[in-house]
């Protein structure tokens, strides 16, 4: 390729990257400029692995040979945009989220997509349409077919009796609420005097609907949440003005553990509600039983715990025995302890399309959540609620979860094995013991690939989808100045898809690294 053609290809690649960056929500549009600033002050001709790459929290890479301002554009071309051997392609023009030529009275045109939706929209501009030729490692859903040995057969049809054609109560049908309560009592509370009843259960049409109901009933308080965490929290926390959300960044140096001294400090400054996912999305880690027990003791009389436990059954620390971890085990009195637990069929039963989920908590909270459902979402699908009852028999669940854990641990180990051979480092601290996510640190990679947007960009050209790490910076209302904790050098990889999709995804990532000459075995 002539130098002129090479320059044109690289210039096109600059334009492509900048167009991709332009579609980000406003608070994240610093990504490209931050990357430019970082790379322009680093020796960009060194294409090997940099031992001094550090994370954004610790600071950007230490300059070895600072370059002059005059060479800035040249180095941008050489690092941000170098195709490294891949074929040029037409620059996809991102579609505007809203048509500015049309007047839209009273509409909020500044709303942005959540992380998973954004990456899907961008992939669609590169030709993605859910076809098998792509590896979607960005979607936060498990494989949903009859693909897991020992798992029950996915329902092909469900009965629709006459009584299920009526509106279901906004708290859910009593039979399913009783089944949920019985499951939690049998699984986590056999040695407890206080038991859940159907009055402690509210059935909701999905996890987001459950979070929205919870947000609507809490008021006049500080609500703390941790970073990084589930991207959809951002929208839920920004829409409601009846409480003040306070982000609490966790430390990368100890793998984002939620230490009790952090929570104690939050309580001391007046926080009376705390929201967290456990196991955690995106890091794939969960609190230990001892940590959970101490957390409940610390918060019992002072703070509402909102525990998102959708990944509680993707738990690998107990030899894949089918056991799980839940705050329900550490609640002393189900009607006194201020603890709300969210879970559902979405993840554990691999039925995300059913939108059947639940919230457990004290009766008074459940009554308020039921009332909120009457004006927020109207309640869950009645026929699916009736069909879900039999799934929750405790022995059935244990058997199902054992099959699930064995299968997903195998997939986790496959992905970690492939990435390890590509040069990524894994140890006890960053190997997920739950969920089906890897929080992958890109900082050892050279130049463009060390930035999550650059890595995402190159993966698109290999038909692989990942989620850039900065989407897990939950900054509702964009009030907090959190530039220093934006995870430019992380991506979330899901090993939820079927194994052949994971193989395809790992092959694509390997091709990206090979093009940039940073595979240890090439």
Automatic annotation (TrEMBL):
> Which InterPro entries does its entry note?
Aminotransferase_I/II_large (IPR004839), AspAT/PAT-like (IPR050596), PyrdxlP-dep_Trfase (IPR015424), PyrdxlP-dep_Trfase_major (IPR015421)
Q: Which Pfam families match?
A: Aminotran_1_2
Q: Which metal ions or organic cofactors does this protein require, according to UniProt?
A: pyridoxal 5'-phosphate
Start and end residues of each Aminotransferase class I/classII large domain: 162-495
Entry-linked CDD domains: AAT_like (cd00609)
Q: A GO molecular-function term, please? A: pyridoxal phosphate binding
Recorded coiled-coil stretches: none
Q: What is this protein called?
A: Piso0_004406 protein
Q: Which organism is it from?
A: Pichia sorbitophila (strain ATCC MYA-4447 / BCRC 22081 / CBS 7064 / NBRC 10061 / NRRL Y-12695)
């Amino acid at each position: 390729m002539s130098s002129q053609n090479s320059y044109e290809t690289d210039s096109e690649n600059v334009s492509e990257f900048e167009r991709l960056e332009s579609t980000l929500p406003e608070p994240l549009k610093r990504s490209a400029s931050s990357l430019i600033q970082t790379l322009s002050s680093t020796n960009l001709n060194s294409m090997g692995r940099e031992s001094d790459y550090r994370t954004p929290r610790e600071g950007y890479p230490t300059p070895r040979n600072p370059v002059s301002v005059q060479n800035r554009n040249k180095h941008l071309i050489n690092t941000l945009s170098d195709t490294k051997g891949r074929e040029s392609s037409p620059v996809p023009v991102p579609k505007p989220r809203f048509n500015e030529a049309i007047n839209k009275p009273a509409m909020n045109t500044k709303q942005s997509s959540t992380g998973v939706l954004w990456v899907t929209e961008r992939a669609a501009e590169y030709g993605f349409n859910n076809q098998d030729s792509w590896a979607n490692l960005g979607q936060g859903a498990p494989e949903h077919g009859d693909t897991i040995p020992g798992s029950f057969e996915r329902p092909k049809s469900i009965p629709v009796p006459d009584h299920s054609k009526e509106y279901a109560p906004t708290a859910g049908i009593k039979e399913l609420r009783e089944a949920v309560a019985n499951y939690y009592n049998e699984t986590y509370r056999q040695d407890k005097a206080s038991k859940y009843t159907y009055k402690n259960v509210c059935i909701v049409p999905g996890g987001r609907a459950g979070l929205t109901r919870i947000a609507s009933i809490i008021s006049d308080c500080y609500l703390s949440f941790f970073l990084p965490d589930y991207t959809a929290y951002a929208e839920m926390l920004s829409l409601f003005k009846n409480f003040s959300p306070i982000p609490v960044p966790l430390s990368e140096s100890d793998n984002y553990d939620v230490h009790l001294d952090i929570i104690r400090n939050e309580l001391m400054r007046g926080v009376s509600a705390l929201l967290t996912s456990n196991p955690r999305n995106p890091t794939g880690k969960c609190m230990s039983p001892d940590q959970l027990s101490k957390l409940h003791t610390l918060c019992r009389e002072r703070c509402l715990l909102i525990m998102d436990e959708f990944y509680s059954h993707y738990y690998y620390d107990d030899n894949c025995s089918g056991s799980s971890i839940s705050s329900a085990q550490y609640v002393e009195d189900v009607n006194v302890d201020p603890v709300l637990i969210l879970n559902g069929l979405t993840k554990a039963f691999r039925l995300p399309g059913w939108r059947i989920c639940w919230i457990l908590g004290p009766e008074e909270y459940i009554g308020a959540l039921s009332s909120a459902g009457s004006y927020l979402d109207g309640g869950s699908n009645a026929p699916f609620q009736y069909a879900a009852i039999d799934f929750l028999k405790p022995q059935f669940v244990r058997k199902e979860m054992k099959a699930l854990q064995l299968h997903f641990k195998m997939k986790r180990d496959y992905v970690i094995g492939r990435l390890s051979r590509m040069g990524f480092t894994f140890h006890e601290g960053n190997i997920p013991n739950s969920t089906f996510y890897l929080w992958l640190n890109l900082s050892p990679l050279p130049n463009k690939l060390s930035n999550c947007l650059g890595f995402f960009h190159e993966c698109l050209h290999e038909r692989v989808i990942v989620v850039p790490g900065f989407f897990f910076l939950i900054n509702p209302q964009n009030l907090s100045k959190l530039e220093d904790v934006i995870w430019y050098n992380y991506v979330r990889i899901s090993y939820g898809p079927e194994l052949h999709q994971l193989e395809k995804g790992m092959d694509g990532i390997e091709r990206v690294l090979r093009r940039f000459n940073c595979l240890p075995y090439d």
